[in-house]
Structures are given as C-alpha cells and as structure tokens.
Amino acid sequence: HKNKINRSGELILTSECSRYQFRNLADCLQKIRDMIAEASQPAKEPSKEDAALHRIRIENMNRERLRKKRIHSALKTDRRVGM
Length: 83
What we know:
Elements lengths: L20 H20 L7 H34 L2
GO biological process, one term: mitochondrial translational termination
InterPro entries: Mito_Release_Factor_mL62
Protein name: Immature colon carcinoma transcript 1
C-alpha cells in the first residue's frame, strides 16, 4: 500500500461508495483495519520450486544484461578504432 502514502508520510484513503460522509468515513476506517490485518499476516515462505525458479530467472536476467553490455561495449570500441 505504499502508493497510498504521500511524500510527507500521510496515508491517503478515499471512499465514494455512499452519498453520506459518515458512511464513507466508516468505509475508510474499515479499509485501514483491513490493511492492518493484511500487514500483520506473516509472509509466506516460497516453496523450493518457486525459489529455484526465482534464482534461475535472476541468473538469466544477469546473463542477458551482461550480454547486452558486451555488445554495447563492442559497438563503442568499433567506433573508436575507426578514428
């Protein structure tokens, strides 16, 4: 819910589910209760399969990043040799 916090650290919630201000206020308070309940739940530990997939994805992303870096570097050195 970090996108609901402004730069000065205030939590901004709105509700327009009713025409009445007190109902909207009650809805906002319920949203806060739900956010607190959700945040108080312990984070689920990833399974071994999920952790392995995550590690493989990160390795592949790093490999691709380094490949692009190598290509970019080769292009720059090719330009420099021509001078």
